[in-house]
Automatic annotation (TrEMBL):
<feature type="signal peptide">
    <location>
        <begin position="1"/>
        <end position="23"/>
    </location>
</feature>
<dbReference type="InterPro" id="IPR003782">
    <property type="entry name" value="SCO1/SenC"/>
</dbReference>
<protein>
    <submittedName>
        <fullName>BsSco</fullName>
    </submittedName>
</protein>
<dbReference type="InterPro" id="IPR036249">
    <property type="entry name" value="Thioredoxin-like_sf"/>
</dbReference>
<keyword id="KW-0479">Metal-binding</keyword>
<feature type="binding site">
    <location>
        <position position="78"/>
    </location>
    <ligand>
        <name>Cu cation</name>
    </ligand>
</feature>
<feature type="binding site">
    <location>
        <position position="171"/>
    </location>
    <ligand>
        <name>Cu cation</name>
    </ligand>
</feature>
<comment type="similarity">
    <text>Belongs to the SCO1/2 family.</text>
</comment>
<dbReference type="Pfam" id="PF02630">
    <property type="entry name" value="SCO1-SenC"/>
</dbReference>
<dbReference type="GO" id="GO:0046872">
    <property type="term" value="F:metal ion binding"/>
</dbReference>
<feature type="binding site">
    <location>
        <position position="82"/>
    </location>
    <ligand>
        <name>Cu cation</name>
    </ligand>
</feature>
<dbReference type="InterPro" id="IPR013766">
    <property type="entry name" value="Thioredoxin_domain"/>
</dbReference>
<feature type="domain" description="Thioredoxin">
    <location>
        <begin position="38"/>
        <end position="206"/>
    </location>
</feature>
<keyword id="KW-1015">Disulfide bond</keyword>
<keyword id="KW-0732">Signal</keyword>
<feature type="disulfide bond" description="Redox-active">
    <location>
        <begin position="78"/>
        <end position="82"/>
    </location>
</feature>
<keyword id="KW-0186">Copper</keyword>
Amino acid sequence: MTIFLKKTRIALSLSLACLGVVASTHSTLAYSAETSFYSTRNHLPKLQFDLAIGDNQRLTAKDLEGKVVLVYFGYTYCPDVCPTTMAELALMKSSLTAQQQEQVQVLMISVDPHRDTPKRLAQYLEAFGMGALGVTGTEREIADIAKRYRVAYQIEKPQNPEYPTMYDVMHAEGIYVFDQQGRASFLASNSHDIETMRDRIIELLN
């Protein structure tokens, strides 16, 4: 239990640190304390990426044009925050009409490029049943896109040298939402306020 709480605190701290960077860089950034939603329009760059989605396959921002895209930086070995977020996003998306669901795409960008292969990401996200896509890349590619959107994450060293693939990744839990033209619209510090997120997405779709 102590380990779980420690990881959660670190993840939340990184999330708040990430949001703090955005707020301090752009003093006009609109924030709603009640719902923890930040307006990022004109304050963050447009959606832009080119990452691996399958064997010898790439996914780019251009492939998602015309959709509202919810971007989450996480990893499949995450014990708590990531599966909770994916489940809540799936629930939120299920509350939309069938036509609206077709226009909304959840995208998970792995911050664990050493273990998260495209195949593993696809299998992980399939369990949530919302058509989410998972992409990964080289360590440099992930670091570059994280820097582009001011995403905080840190890959910890393995505690036991005999098991080099057993390690934790601390990361922010913010969800970046881009409109149909790829413009940054808002940033939710977490996925817990499902109703407000749904309403904001419907506004973008309209």
